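Protocol step 4 of 5: obtain the predicted structure for the target chain.
Materials: sequence only (see below). No template structures provided, no constraints applied. The aim of this step is simply to have a reference model before the mutagenesis design in step 5. Sequence pasted as it appears in the construct record:
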Amino acid sequence: MTDEQLAAIQDRIKSPFLEGLAPPELNVILAAARQCRFQAGTVVTWRGTPADRVFLLVTGRARFFVLTPEGRKILLLWLAEGEIFGAAATLRRPSDYIVSTETVKDSTVLAWNRSTIRRLGMRYPRLLENLLLTSAEYLSFYVATHMALTCRTAAQRLASVLLSLTQGIGRTVRSGVEIDVSNEELAQAANVTHFTASRLISTWQKQGALAKTRGKILLHSSGKLLLAKI
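Step 4 output (structure tokens):
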């Protein structure tokens, strides 16, 4: 990348992956990356394929997913700008990607190949520490998700997904927080049927907790959602 590109990325990006690194260290790390652009709907990593690169989402949006043996897509975690994916590429033993990752919007990422990110990690230990912290956060998310599947009702799971999305990819607007998500995507993430998700969203809309438009949800108040009657 050129000096201008490096400067623009440093000005724009705020990533836990790069926390605690001095400007000269950031210059070296960012200069070693390859900048890539992907259209919305592109699968960047496939579960079960060799983990040969680590990615940092600079612009756009992405999410983790898996496919069941029957081919059904299960959505996992949405990724906002500054998040990383493909961390398995940093392991000493060659590994496969644990989940698949697809772009939700047109996106720009920085990519480091396996040998490069491992070399940088040995040179700058804080980089590996940041990766471990991010991995721990992802594990905490999946533990909470598993507990929700076993202990919560469909309405509670769907409400939890909505609140998680507003915190992760939501945009604050005058009347609440807006997220780009469809009923089908919410159903997949909460492990409920499309009919159940649509019914619950309609109920919450009538109760004033949110407003639904095509491909978007505007959450007026998290408190109203949690207190809404089902």
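Step 4 remarks: The two ends are 53 Å apart (CA to CA). Residues 125-151 form the longest helix (27 residues).
Proceed to step 5.
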